[in-house]
Amino acid sequence: IFGNKMGIVIGHGDSGATSAGTSNNYVANNIVYRNAYGITEMGKVGTNNRYANNLVFNTGRAWLVKGAVTATVAAEPQFVNYQANGTGDYRLKST
Hints:
Helices cover 0% and strands 34% of the residues. It contains no helices and eleven strands.
């Protein structure tokens, strides 16, 4: 997720939302880079939301969640050739 301003947001808040909020979400294997937020729960949030194996960097806040976070790190992703205009090579370097 790059430059979409919000990063990844989990939660209910619009018309038609359930009163219990959103539950049982599994957010995994994402790179969240250069957004105002990283991974965030907003609005009505239920239970059993899980976040695993995500890489979050250069965001206002890496994550703000109540659910379980495992193997998620805030670190430079080390893209092969990052270009802000989308013309780069966004594979990850071998380290």
